[in-house]
Write a structure and sequence with these properties.
Blueprint: H1 4-9, E1 25-29, H2 30-43, E2 49-56, E3 60-69, H3 76-82, H4 101-113, E4 117-126, H5 134-138, E5 145-152, E6 155-164, E7 171-174, E8 176-179
Parallel strand pairs: 1-3, 1-8, 4-5
Antiparallel strand pairs: 2-3, 2-4, 5-6, 6-7
The structure holds zinc ion.
Length: 180
Amino acid sequence: MPGIAEGLRDVVDLRGKDSRERPMALKLNHAQMEAIRRHAAEEYPFECCGVMLGKVDDVCKAVGEIVALKNLRRESARAQEWLPVDDPTRESGRNRFLIDPLDQLRIEKDGRARSLEVLGYYHSHPDHPARPSIYDREHAWPWYSYVIISVERGVPGDLTSWVLAEDRLAFRAEEVEIVS
Ligand SMILES: [Zn+2]
C-alpha cells in the first residue's frame, strides 16, 4: 500500500492530551477477533471491511458486535459515484476499502435501536503490514477505532488498532485487549 512509510512517521503518542484524546483500550473477545480474521482471509486478496458496535465508558470501548460489510471499492462504478479516486485501476478493492454510505446509515440505526454505538471500523491489508497508510489517515475521523489486520498470502496475521488525533494529523496506536 503506498504511503506506509509516511504513515509510520505520523504515529505519535498522545498521552497527556485532553480527556477526549486520553487513550482508551479497545476490548474484543475471542469470537470477535476470529470473525475479523475469518473475514479478512475470505476476502483475500481484496481488502475486507466492517464496523464494530458496542459501548463506551471512561476507560474502554467494549465491542459488542462485529458487522462484516461489503467493500464497495470492488464495485468500481458505484464506488466512483460516492468517493472518486484518480485511477480506479490502481486504487481498487485490493488496496482500498469503501463502506457503502447506505450500509453505514443502516448499521448506525440498527445499533441505536439496541443502545449500541459505532466504536470504529476494521479493514484488512492484503500482503501489507497492519499499519495505517496515508490514505487511511486522510479518510479517518477522530475518536473512532480503526482496526487493521494484515493478511500475508491469505493467512491473517497481526491485528492493530489506531485512533486519529483531534487535529487529524496523526494516528496513535490503541491498546487492543482480548477478553474471554
Ligand atoms: Zn488501510
